[in-house]
Sequence to fold (155 residues):
Amino acid sequence: MNTLRMTALVKRIDRPRLWRYLVVLAVVFWLGGLSFYALIVVPVGTDVLGSTAQGFITQRVTNQLNLVSSAILVLLLANAIMRRGRLLIGSWLVMAAAQVVLILMHPWLDSMLDAKIQEISDGALFYARHGVYLDATAAQWGGLLVHLWCILFTE
Fold:
């Protein structure tokens, strides 16, 4: 493609639409990955490996998921500030608060796992804490759905 054609193509790109497309891709990547892992991978892994072994896989996966989620939250904050929608900002706050809970809770849960012998030190306490972690994940998932709605259907 020659330089003149490329310049003409760049001039025709609708930057706000391109930005919105990139934001939607980020949300879909996060929402799809989280949903697929929670609804497919965890149950199948539990059936094949057992609950405890699957938990050690989830421990490592959620470290990566928290990293991806945090990066996407930065992008979504920029978008929420630019668009200034109350519901957009509110859903972002829910997702960000949930992310803080997830990041703070992860080491707390990790401290109860012994990877060398694949055991949980205090099962009752672990599963009580894990329930809070799952509640924060569910709140974040709900916030993501609301946020996606706002991106797609509000101005």
